Amino acid sequence: VQLVESGGGLVQPGGSLRLSCAASGFTFSAYAMKWYRQAPGKGRELVATIYSTGVAAYYLDVVRGRFTISRDNRENTVSLQMNSLEPEDTAVYYCETEVRSRGSLIPYWGQGTQVTVSS
């Protein structure tokens, strides 16, 4: 299983970024996908979840209405559109999934992509 994030960068407050995660090595269309983030000095928090069917299942309260998670099961990608970005959104963003293997769900993470919101 491999997850590779891209799309991070430096953006001014109020700006937008679109993160992407390219997945391989498993049946992408069968599994939910998640975006997490970790800000400096803080723990990792779940930002958004999308079911295998493409239905968004969860948004962190502080991003609801500003972020949109989506997926393309033909291209094996999951995206996070981030609008109206705030300095508090500064973090490393990670793509994550849990793949079933021998009866257990095994978590897999990407390497992360840095998002910095600053003027």
Structural overview:
This protein has 119 residues and is an all-beta fold. The protein contains no helices and 11 strands. It has strands at residues 2-6, 9-11, 17-24, 33-38, 44-50, 56-59, 67-72, 77-82, 91-101, 104-109, 113-117. Strands 2, 4, 5, 6, 9, 10 and 11 form a 7-stranded mixed sheet that branches. A 4-stranded antiparallel sheet has the order 1-3-8-7, with no helix packed on it. A hairpin with a 5-residue loop joins strand 4 (33-38) and strand 5. The model has no long low-confidence stretch (mean pLDDT 97).
Number of helices: 0
Uncertain segments = none
C-alpha geometry: globular
**What do the pLDDT scores average to?**
97
Strand coverage percent: over 45%
Please give the number of β-strands. 11
Which H/E pattern describes the elements?
EEEEEEEEEEE
What distance lies between the first and last C-alpha atoms, to the nearest angstrom? 37 Å
Level of helix content?
under 10%
